[in-house]
Amino acid sequence: MTRRFLRVVPLALAVACGPSEPSPSPSPTATPDPCATAPSRYGKAIVESWIPACSLAQDIYNDPSEALGPPNAAGSGPDHFSGFVSLGFGGHVTVDLGGCISDVAGPDLRVFQAVSGEPVSVYVSLQPEGPFTLIEALKECGDPYSGIQHSCEFDLASGGVTRARYVRVEDGELFPCPGGTVTEGADFDAVEALGVSTAALPDGTR
Prior knowledge:
- By secondary structure, the protein is mainly beta.
- The chain has helices at about 10-15, 55; strands at about 45-50, 75, 80, 85, 90-100, 110-115, 120-125, 135-140, 150-155, 165-170, 185-195.
- A hairpin with a 3-residue loop joins strand 2 and strand 3.
């Protein structure tokens, strides 16, 4: 005689293995407002930088943090300078102003470039990862015969931009490396937000 066995599943196990309720969808994370804080007058933090290896191999002014704060380039050439970063062939540094600046009548940004009058290109964005908008390309940045500190100004309206927080300064000299100097490319000293009043800032220069 063939015996047949009926498998009995405990009720608790049957319930546990039954269809489960779908998990609730996670709430979307709000994107932080880049303009929620007031901007600094000068660069507050370095977001990222890139300098080509062939320039890094011989440049001796390679610290991107030298582009923060007010302009302070000093010294004499070829290897007794201080206070700037040499961008090398097509290199760049992206600076965070800590908050957004708005387009006003006239220039909104001033870039300080040391040693000579090498041109620079300036891009801006509301987010650290971009997208970045070109404001002006290959702009001559100062009189190369008027001392060590030079500057050039940029208007957000030139790029069709009304607000910006992140400023990317890129070498515009574009002299292929190695170029036979220890300060290849534009020598980026500082970026200044012209619409930020020093009177409204606690330290008067921030």
